[in-house]
Amino acid sequence: MVSNAIFIHHSDSSGYKFHDDHPFDPIRQVLTIDLLKEAQALTDEQIIQPDYLIDENMLRLVHRHDYVQAVKLLDTEDDPRSKAVLAEQFGLQTEDTPFFPGLHKAASAIVTGSVEAAEAVMSGRTLHAFHLAGGLHHAFPDRASGFCVYNDASIAITHIRNKYNARVLYIDTDVHHGDGVQWSFYDDSEVCTYSIHETGKYLFPGTGYAYEKGVDQGFGTCFNVPLEPFTEDESWLESFNVTIRKVIEAFKPDVILSQHGCDAHAYDPLSHIHCSMRIYQEIPAILHELAHTYTEGRWIALGGGGYDIWRVVPRAWSQVWLEMTDHPLAEAIRAHEVEALPAAWLERWSSASPVPLPNNWQDDSSAIPPIPRRDIITEQNRNTQSIVIQDL
Ligand SMILES: [Zn+2]
Ligand SMILES: [Zn+2]
């Protein structure tokens, strides 16, 4: 039987934790799964838990041999000096992405989940799959970057290309440019990468300009929508709708693989985009519609960034699953028929959270002050939209 949607969670992916003060925290997965369960939207039977790790050949689809060896060696190397040299060489000695014991296993578990999700959709076992631990879009073939060690998104896409020869549209709505995935397929005409993010003028990784359009046969299959800092919901959604609809119409993919970083929220400590929960309701709804219109429903969704782990991430990622499963709660939240988050969830996590938890699924609009320069920002984003779609 073909199911509509599966939820993938590899238990070893919760080991992907740099240290206690690091913003990338796997408790995000626990909080989201618990919220969905308390909302009666996810059962243990719906959660697929892979009990294996992909082998090294799968990592090698994207990563260099010496890099994978280094990540593994860092687990067993005892001499602190050799360890430091190795970590330095491969981007694992930085403040952002420091090496920790068990890194190879945890990062491999994340890749496993994303490949499993891709396989489930491409083999026809399910129409949609969600792997919330995935979406580590900054990792490079030979180095770690921006909290990302193995690029599960690029590996899953390469696996789809090799095994199914399908045309893949990668859609990245994380507030940071999806650079690692873009560069993986920059010269590939069969993989189209699309990223909408805060402009690299002010934010890591400093790339993702509209003029980055691919090279050689891949020219014209790379799209970037760099938004102004302090962009709000209306302009964000307009920029997304105007551009992604043109892109998908032109590229005609066989499958959509989406990255759901939720760090464009006004509460997020690492960026300057000023959106609310509204975009995290709309993004999955738009992608879901596009999948059923263009790819016979084939849609693989991954997690990504999101650093207000208590107030934003659990609500935002829950929306992906509610939408994907056509759960009535998605519509009820949209229609304001259901406002409050499950009481048991709030009760369980309130004392652990350093900030007061929101009571409702949607943001209270008074909690996010309007931006005075809204018109100028909207105008600037419209200029960007027209540049992005000028050849389509
Ligand atoms: Zn991000
Ligand atoms: Zn569907």
List the helices and strands and how they pair.
Elements: E1 3-8, H1 27-38, E2 47-48, H2 56-59, H3 65-76, H4 80-89, H5 103-122, E3 126-131, H6 152-164, E4 168-172, H7 179-184, E5 191-198, E6 222-227, H8 233-251, E7 255-259, H9 277-294, E8 299-302, H10 313-324, H11 328-334, H12 343-350, H13 374-388
Parallel strand pairs: 1-2, 1-3, 3-8, 4-5, 4-7, 5-6, 7-8
Helix pairs in contact: 1-10, 1-12, 5-6, 8-9, 8-13, 9-10
Residues 174-176, 261, 263, 305 line the site of one zinc ion.
Q: How would you describe the overall organization of this protein?
A:
It is a single chain. This protein has 13 helices and eight strands. The protein is of the alpha/beta class. It has a single domain, classed as 3-Layer(aba) Sandwich (Arginase, Chain A). It has an eight-stranded parallel β-sheet, with helices on both faces. Strand 7, helix 9 and strand 8 form a beta-alpha-beta unit. Helix 1 crosses helix 10 and helix 8 packs parallel to helix 13. The protein is globular, with a radius of gyration of 20 Å. The model has no long low-confidence stretch (mean pLDDT 96). Bound molecules: zinc ion (ZN) (2 copies). One zinc ion (ZN) binds next to loops. The site of one zinc ion has 6 residues, from loops. Keywords: Acetoin catabolism. This is Acetoin utilization protein AcuC. InterPro entries: AcuC, HDACs, His_deacetylse_dom, His_deacetylse_dom_sf, Ureohydrolase_dom_sf. Belongs to the histone deacetylase family. One of its GO terms (molecular function) is histone deacetylase activity.
